[in-house]
Amino acid sequence: MASDLLVYNIGVLITSKEIDIINKTSMENIEVLNNAYVAIKNGHIFSLGEGDYDSSLIESNTILIDAEKNVVIPGLIDSHTHLVHGGSRENEMFLKAKGATYMEILNAGGGILSTVKATKEATKEELVEKAKISLKKMLAFGVTTIESKSGYGLDLETEIKQLEVNQILDKEQPIDIVSTFMGAHAIPKEYKGKEEAFIKNVIQMLPEIKAKNLAEFCDIFCEHGIFSVDQSREVLKAAKKLGFKLKIHADEIESIRGAELAGELETTSSEHLMAVSDEGIIALKNSEVIANILPGTSFYLKKEYAPVRKMIDYGVQIALSTDYNPGSCPTENLQLIMQIAALYLNMSPIEIIKAVTINGAKSLNKEKQIGSIEIGKKADLVMFNSKSLEYILYHFGINHTKMVIKNGEIVYYI
Ligand code: IZC
Ligand code: ZN
């Protein structure tokens, strides 16, 4: 049977299909093909292999794309973003340069709380338009699926507004959006000193979010001075009962046993982990939680990087994401995050690709549909303007994308 579209003459095709089942804990156990082709039909991967493609794969209507020996990999997955928000926080950059910390700015009513104010003031249409500009940039960087959190409302009405923006965006542009409810992102001003009442309030928001089918995941900022481990357990357990899958911002700034809680609750992923303890790493490993590492945030806040090599040695699976948000990581550029991972996390090129493809999919519970180039999966691919994978990680801060294919359609080409 013939295909709709066939990409041939691919120099290096990293399919991200997991191989070597004996060494399941490896971060390098993904398939790499040379001189390869990929055939697509009805938006899905139809056939692939090394060498010449079979002539039965093409007919007069098949679109043929010569990859000119370039690198092709699965569409990138950015599995942790705070995409939908009003305003920006460039003022904080210069407060930080004068010595103010992220937490001090938040405690003075800035930080997340200033974005909450701007997000409340914005209309749904304004939020859609602003986020669309970011999504266009992400697509150009090769991203075909993202996760997008609420958490700049902290009240039911604005949280729903943010999540409805996710729904609109999912329909109106090519990138698939996985929605996460993060009502417990900060303590709003009016609840200062009444944290327990706020926790109850967030738990009361959950049934309506679920009934409206507005989010697949529930996340919380488990951090010293924000939400404690006990409060995080309370919210996440209530969410799990209602059928939400779980994520947790854990041990970002201080080690408070957030990763241990992720292990206990078997969350799908655990985010940040810059200050994770050894016990926390073991808890992640024993429960198969994906460690979603956000090195752009370490870079931007000038903080420690997460101990990724140690986690890999312990057998933890790593995903890499931007954490795109207006405060601690204002960039849509996942390629830059991959370059930071090569420079500062000492990850190998193949480990980095695994982290932004199949492991990104796992951290969204979507590994059956996306994250690798395998027959039957969604035809989401990115072709780089490079014949070597290493070059993409070495030449930093620019965009290496040549073509993006989403659901079998060419959605970006330069
Ligand atoms: O707006 O500062 N860490 N949440 C937890 C963030 C960073 C986003 C922000
Ligand atoms: Zn985050």
Task: Tell me what the structure shows.
The protein is built from 15 helices and 16 strands. With 414 residues, it is of the alpha/beta class. The mean pLDDT is 97. α4 packs across α5, α6 packs parallel to α7 (229-241) and α8 (258-265) packs parallel to α9. Helix content is 36%, strand content 24%. It is globular. β8 (176-184), α6 (195-211) and β9 form a beta-alpha-beta unit. 2H-imidazol-4-ylacetic acid binds at residues 82, 111-112, 115, 221, 249, 325-328.
List keywords for this structure.
414 residues; 15 helices; alpha/beta; globular; binds zinc ion; 36% helix; binds 2H-imidazol-4-ylacetic acid; eight-stranded mixed beta sheet; eight-stranded parallel beta sheet
Give the gist of this structure:
With about 425 residues, the chain is α/β, with parallel strands linked by helices.
Radius of gyration: 21 Å
Overall body shape: globular
Q: Find the structural class using helix and strand composition.
A: alpha/beta
Q: What low-confidence regions span 5 or more consecutive residues with pLDDT below 50?
A: none
Based on DSSP secondary structure assignment, what is the total number of beta strands? 16
Number of helices: 15
Average pLDDT reading: 97
Share of helix, binned: 25-40%
Ligand names: 2H-imidazol-4-ylacetic acid, zinc ion
Residue share in β-strands? 15-25%
For the sheet with most strands, the description reads: 8 strands, mixed
Termini separation: 30 Å
